[in-house]
Structures are given as C-alpha cells and as structure tokens.
Write a structure and sequence with these properties.
Length: 524
C-alpha cells in the first residue's frame, strides 16, 4: 500500500532536517518554499473572492516567519491589489528566531516601496479591526507548542476569534497541539481553513478538535522523509484501497468468492440481519447462510432470495446453532446485528467462540455480550475483527480521557487480544495487532444513522469470505462503506441517507476504488 503517514512533531522535524540536508538548502530556503506555496494556496482558495484587506498575524518564531513570507509574496508577486497588514504579535522582551528576524527585515524593506504593505505592532492599545470583508491569516504558532497558550497570545487569539473575517491558519490553528491533547486552558484559533504544510496532522482527524481547523488543505513543498522513519499511524486513501482490491478471475464460480455465515436478528430486530445480509451479498460473496429466527427468515426470503437460511429452534431469538446442519465450506463468520442479549443468546455466542477457529466479525450485541463477559476476549480467534462505535468500545476498554487516549486504548486492546479493531466514527480508525492504525478517508455525517454499522458488518464478512486477509478486509470494507455513503451524497442531501441506501451504492463505491483518483483525501 502507498501509505500517507501521519507523523508526530519530532518526526516532522526530522523530515525537515532530512529534506534540507538532501537538497542542500537552508531553513530560510525551506521557509521560503512553504510561505510561497501557502500564498498561492490562499489566492486559489474559494475564500479569496471579494475581500478588502488581508491581516497576517505573526508570532516571533518560525511559524511567524512563514507568515511573513506569505505577506511578501502576496504583495511582491502581485497576487493581490489589497492592503496587506503584517500584524506582529510580540510581548515585551520577546525573542525572535533568526529566521523571523530575517523575514521581518525583508518585509520592512518591501514596505518602504510598496503602498499596499503595512506593519502593525499588536498591543491592547493598537489592535487592527478586521471585518467580515477581510481575510485573516493566522501564523502565530505552528506545530511546536509544548505548553498552553495563555496571557498575551491568548488575548491575540481571542481577538482573532472575535472577528467576522474568514480565517486561514498556517500549518495548524495557533494554540492547537498537533499530536497530543490540547490543554483545556489553551486559547485556540478557530480557523475556517488550515493549510497543513506537507503532512496532515493527527489532530485534524479527531472529534474533539473539529471546531478549530475548518477545511484542511495539505500544501506540498517537496519535503521528504528518511526511508527508515517509522510511524504507527497512516491515512488509508483511495490508492491504498485500489492496491488491495482484487481483479475478478475470468473463470470464477460462486465457490471462488467464498461462503459466509451470518448469525443475526431476533423477532424484535429483524432489520439488522436483513441489512447485513444484503451488504454481504452486494459485497461480492459467493454464498451466504443466515442463521436467524423464523420471523426474520420469512422477511429475508422475500427481500433477499439469494441467501440460504438456517432457522433457530427458538422463534423469538437465537438460542443454539446446529453445526452439523451447516455446510462444511464456511469461510467466514459474522455475528451480532440485531441479536439481543438474552441468556440463551449469550450461551449461543459462547458456543461460537468455543467452536469456530476462523477469524470472526463481531459487532453490535455480540460486542455487548463480550463487554459483559470480558474473560471471553482471551478466546477470540486471532485476527478477529471487532467493529465497535465509541460507546461500545468504552464498555470493552473503559472510558478514555480524550481522543488521543482513545487511540492508545484501541492500540493496547488490539495488541492484547490479537484482534483487528474497527473503531467506528468519522475517520473510522482500524487498529492492527501490531499497533498500526489507519484512519479512513471516506464517509460523511449522513451515515450516522441506525443500521449503518450492520451494513459494514455484512460487507466485511463478504470480503473475509472472499479470501481477503482480515486486515485487508477491515480496511477495504471501511473504505468502500464510506465511499458508498459519499456516492449517495453526490446526488442527495446526506441527511436523507438511510442504511438500506448503502448497499445500493456499493457498485459506485467499487467502481470508484477500481478507477480511483489517486489524489483523493479528505478531512471535512
């Protein structure tokens, strides 16, 4: 797979050093490339319409230097005819980095000959007053924060946030930590857009930071990473999915694409089983057997005549699986959607854990049964795929203190039990037993609807039955599931999406992966 890596701050610094050494350039030259690329991106963005003035707020470090370079290029390259104000924010006795000192002198020289270039030294008595018709560029702090923003700079940030101007942050919104939890007492710029230099940041993929970064654009400045630089976190993109998707054999038959067993449904929740079964069939499985109760079978026989049925002895809920009556060629097993958690169903699940040695796909009520019987976790077949949402995961692994802690708990859980954990949400995170974590790049808020997870379970079961490695079935299933939601949203308001829409858009999702735009990546 062609991985888009999510580097932590020390690793990004190492990439900067490596790039400068390899290309034989200085930090000033790298800053020049970053500032110039950001200036171009700002001018090409849709925010750059009928704006009046541009206010670039800079601190005393190298992020401020980037901002000063942006200001220079906006004026010097005739990108704009607007007034450009460099708002220098420095408390008394502040130290400027060498690079920022150089860029500030450069700006001062430009200011003497260009009528559109202006400098404002920020203070409580001397504050600019951007309006909704102006543009703010936030270049106060970059990724190097190691303490919360308070005092003078907190006042600057509150001033920026109080403005109605469209705000663009350089690299990361000032005050936001890029690779660790942002302290509650840190002031943070609320950006409408963030220009993330070269690499996306983990912070942009976590729910707790959603109010701050806005639309994210990754600005390529040609920075490279050393070959031996490792990171456990990656984005999973269209090119990665394309690399995993197998071509269809010309002489295939239904046995080529596997036989899956889905244990799902009860009299009170028939829909979950039907959604998962439809997703499995539409996902390309060769044959599907559904173990369920009679009332669900009656609906399933009409809505999905392609499925094979095994009826439980109990008419209300799953109570026992007769393994002797199942075909011998079962390649994958999934359980959970709509099962309920009655005592006999719990016993049936324990029987599955004792009997099945294949990796399982475990969702919904099956996860809740595991949460109530945590000693069973040790008996999960290796590389089973668990697909909890946040609340289900908390019941399994405890309540996290923040989103970064949730990621660490996911990693520890996957490693401890040798399972693949699919932590569902916007940017679903797939964690492998070796600790690697992949953030998904498809899907939309319309998919936050009842039954969406049942569809994902069926799709992963389908891929697992077809012979995909469990890791690949999880990654590809999550990506295709999200791509189906995006396919729906292309022609419809996403809020109108219901779970049964998703399998109908699997053909478009598979087609997207097969003929993907390799540049596809999103953060919104």
């Amino acid at each position: 797979m062609e991985e888009c890596r999510l580097y932590a701050v020390p690793e990004i610094r190492e990439c900067e050093r490596f790039t400068m050494q390899k290309r034989g350039i200085s930090s000033l030259e790298l800053m020049e490339e970053a500032g110039h690329a950001c200036a171009e991106e700002i001018c090409m963005s849709r925010c750059f319409g009928d704006i009046d003035n541009i206010y670039i707020y800079v601190g005393t470090g190298n992020n401020g230097g980037d901002g000063a370079v942006i200001a220079v290029h906006l004026v010097e390259d005739s990108f704009v005819d607007n007034n450009v104000y460099l708002v220098v924010c420095a408390p008394e006795k502040a130290r400027y980095s060498k690079e920022m000192q150089y860029q500030l002198k450069r700006w001062k020289r430009l200011e003497k000959k260009e009528v559109t270039a202006h400098t404002i030294y920020y203070s409580t008595e001397n504050q600019p007053n951007p309006t909704k018709d102006d543009l703010i560029v936030d270049a106060l702090f970059g990724i190097g924060l190691n303490k919360p923003v308070t005092g003078f700079y907190a006042d600057v940030i509150h001033h920026i946030n109080a403005s109605d101007a469209y705000t663009v942050s350089v690299d990361t919104p000032s005050g936001l930590f890029a690779d660790q939890p942002t302290p509650d007492n840190s002031a943070v710029v609320i950006a409408d857009m963030t220009l993330s230099i070269q690499f996306p940041k983990v912070a942009f993929l976590l729910p707790e930071n959603a109010p701050y970064y806005g639309e994210v654009e990754v600005v390529d400045i040609g920075m490279e990473a050393p070959e031996n630089l490792e990171t456990p976190r990656m984005l999973f993109t269209a090119s990665d999915a394309n690399a995993l998707l197998r071509p269809l054999p010309k002489f295939a038959h239904k046995g080529t694409f596997g036989h899956g067993l889905l244990v799902a449904g009860c009299a009170q929740m028939p829909g979950a089983a039907i959604l998962a079964a439809k997703a499995a069939m539409r996902g390309g499985i060769g044959k599907l057997t559904v173990h369920t109760v009679k009332s669900v079978r009656d609906i399933l026989a009409v809505s999905l005549p392609e499925a094979i049925h095994q009826i439980d002895d109990n008419e209300q809920y799953v109570s026992h699986i007769d393994w002797n009556t199942l075909p011998e060629n079962i390649n994958a097993v999934a359980l959970g959607p709509g099962l309920g958690t009655r005592q006999q169903t719990v016993a049936a699940m324990k029987d599955i854990l004792d009997t099945v040695k294949l990796p399982l796909v475990i969702d919904a009520d099956a996860l809740n049964m595991l949460a109530e019987n945590k000693t069973w976790l040790a008996y999960l077949p290796p590389h089973s795929i668990l697909t909890p949402h946040f609340a289900e995961f908390e019941r399994l692994a405890g309540k996290p203190s923040d989103d970064f802690d949730r990621l660490e708990r996911a990693k520890a859980f996957a490693q401890r039990y040798s399972v693949i954990l699919v932590l569902k949400g916007h940017h679903t995170v797939v964690t492998f037993p070796n600790g690697r974590q992949f953030f998904n790049t498809t899907g939309n808020a319309g998919m936050a609807t009842a039954g969406s997870g049942d569809v994902l379970t069926g799709l992963i079961l389908s891929l697992l039955a077809q012979g995909y490695r469990p890791e690949h079935a999880a990654l590809l299933g999550v990506f295709l599931h999200g791509a189906a939601g995006d396919a729906f949203a292309r022609d419809n308001d996403p809020r109108t999406l219901i779970a049964s829409d998703l399998p109908q858009h699997f053909p478009e999702a598979f087609d997207f992966v097969r003929n993907c735009d390799f540049g596809f990546m999103k953060f919104d």
